[in-house]
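Course assignment 3, question 2. Fill in each field.
Student: A.L.
Task: Predict the tertiary structure for the chain below.
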Amino acid sequence: MRTATSFLVRPLPPAALDAVRRTGRDAAGRPAEALRAGGGEPLRCCLRDAGAGEDLLLFGYAPPVAAGPYREIGPVFAHAGSCPGPDQTGGYPAAWRDRPQVLRAYDRRGRIHGGRRHDGTDPEGVIAELFADPEVHQLHSRNVVYGCFMFTVDRPGE
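Answer field:
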């Protein structure tokens, strides 16, 4: 397993979450849905699964890529109120280790530039392999079954 110092994991930006919480509208201008967690919903604000009974929002989010044909809006869960964010900063989310994911690579123009599925045992190794390509600017972790955006992986200093 590789160290987490060669990349930076980013949850949903606090400003984007604050805007949805304040306006009640998502990236497409649709109303965010308030709901009570059944348990297991992947929270993009703190990069862990929700516990049963937590107050959540479900809304459309546009992951950070350059404007163009690959920019999309997809569903994400977050706490309805403010939360402290991820338990750790920078490294792969501990709560989601061992969870298979797809890492989709993007270039600086916002175009898909490859990707890989990983089984969760060595996500750092797959991240390092994808970032070995100098054209890769950013990675998005995606849920294997639903394809939903989970979090962003950036090179340090970018």
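Instructor remarks: The two ends are 23 Å apart (CA to CA). The beta strands are 8-10, 33-36, 42-43, 48-49, 55-61, 74-79, 101-106, 112-118, 138-143, 149-154.
Grade: pending
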